[in-house]
Amino acid sequence: MVIREVGLLFRGFTLVKKSYHKTTLGKIDTDLRSGLLTALLNFAETIFATGAVEYFEGNRFTLAFINEKILADDSIEPELLVSYAIIDKQKKIDKYVSKIIHPLLTKVAKEFKAQNEGKNLSEISQFKIFKKNFDEIFGSDTKNVDQKLRGLFF
Known about the structure:
By secondary structure, this protein is of the alpha+beta class.
């Protein structure tokens, strides 16, 4: 299993993301993609009314996510912060998502929240340094088999 991309969404925009492996051939507008992901998540949770949507599965990839709340400096109530990961599709994805990916995404959201609660979240350039946290949290799960083997022998 390879984690291809991880990120954080707030108000339909990407606060920070890290791509480890390409998931598309062309260039995709990050803001449009973030807005679409946020809309899909909100729609799915409204339709199912239980908030039990944990991931979306496609032909090649799975999009896993968790929802957290964060308070921005321009808001009086906490708002939705979505932590997501795009991973390769595999058998028994349900178990992998619940046992491995969701705890990692929860850790990402908690660390981000601890560092940025109450800040101006609209200035996204300040979050670039958070990419190092992604590397620390996800570690070798972001490497494919070739990269892992190279790390063992070289």
